[in-house]
Amino acid sequence: MENGNDHGRKRRILILGGTGEARALATSLVAMGHDVTTSLAGRTRAPLLPPGAVRIGGFGGIDGLAAYLAKTRPHLLVDATHPFAATISANAVAASGVAGTPLLRLVRQPWSRPGGAVWLKAATMADAASSLPRGARVLLTIGRQEVEAFFPRTDCWFLARMIEHSPAIPADWTVLTAQGPFDQQGEKHLLVEHGITHLVSKNAGGPQTYAKIAAAAELGVPVLMVSRPGLAQARTVRTVAQALSVIADLCRNG
Ligand code: NAP
């Protein structure tokens, strides 16, 4: 025990971030005196930075992450990336195994269908794109990385909402750059204003972007809900509070 009492024990924790939960966790852990580094992929130009140390950019696959863990020797690796960030989450499982670093996954609960809502589940973006009926007016809320799957649907009209514009977007699409949280009234207004017939969403979960789901349900707008990618088994918690509780146990017993 480094500081003589359980509460004062300082731990080195590496958080794989890019989510609100990762920032909230880093904020709490830094306030408790832990030595926290958050890792960001570097996708957004002006990311919201958490307190503590921040490193930006890929590690170089499983080997790169394992080498980083071996060099920096964190007591715990927390994968708090987005539920659709499947590659880094898979790398976290493999690299933590190689380096012998305990891993905790913090991933929010998926949304479940509100009563009366019309949900069509899609396993992939390509499935979602091919499920749209001809002439659909679509609100696309999947970010910018996977929008290409919808480019062949020139028979549909698209309003794509994303944090940063992508130069790849077809000229006849309408792009709305915005970042949550959004409220239900605003989302209803958006759906009505643009005559949206279909909402496409990832099942991201969490309160920040839930309003579109509630608004679509209220208006009877069908939702094409893209399911989360499957991930390898890892110790998993759903909330920041649960993560803090696991880390407190680790400080007491680890
Ligand atoms: P991904 O497909 O799972 O990862 C692709 C590569 O990006 C990884 O192999 C890794 O490169 C690098 N990477 C991803 N997250 C990283 C992190 N936190 N720190 C360092 N390197 C990281 O990831 P993604 O879906 O592109 O997501 C990238 C970031 O955006 C993540 O931090 C995620 O939490 C956030 N985000 C994603 C979404 C989404 O819908 N996918 C939504 C909101 C936020 P190396 O192999 O070189 O290490």
Lateral strand order in the biggest sheet: 3-2-1-4-5-12
> Radius of gyration in whole Å, from Cα?
20 Å
Strand fraction: 15-25%
Percent in helix: 25-40%
The pLDDT mean sits at 94
Principal-axis shape equals elongated
Write down how many β-strands occur, each being a DSSP E stretch of 2 or more residues. 12
How many helices does DSSP assign? 7
H/E order of the elements?
EHEEHEHEEHEEEHEHEEH
Low-pLDDT runs of 5+ residues are: 1-6
The biggest sheet amounts to:
6 strands, parallel
Ions, cofactors and other ligands present here are: NADP nicotinamide-adenine-dinucleotide phosphate
First-last Cα distance? 10 Å
The structure class reads alpha/beta
Describe the model.
The chain is of the alpha/beta class and 254 residues long. The protein contains seven helices and twelve strands. The chain has a six-stranded parallel sheet, sandwiched between helices. The radius of gyration is 20 Å and the shape is elongated. Bound molecules: NADP nicotinamide-adenine-dinucleotide phosphate. NADP nicotinamide-adenine-dinucleotide phosphate (NAP) is lined by residues 16-19, 39-41, 43, 58-61, 64-65, 81-82, 84-88, 91, 143, 145, 202.
Write the layout of secondary structure elements.
Elements lengths: L11 E5 L3 H12 L3 E6 L12 E4 L4 H12 L3 E4 L6 H14 L3 E4 L12 E4 L2 H7 L5 E5 L15 E6 L11 E4 L6 H10 L4 E5 L8 H9 L3 E4 L9 E2 L2 H14 L1
Parallel strand pairs: 1-2, 1-4, 2-3, 4-5, 5-12, 6-11, 7-8, 7-10, 8-9, 10-11
The structure holds NADP nicotinamide-adenine-dinucleotide phosphate (NAP).
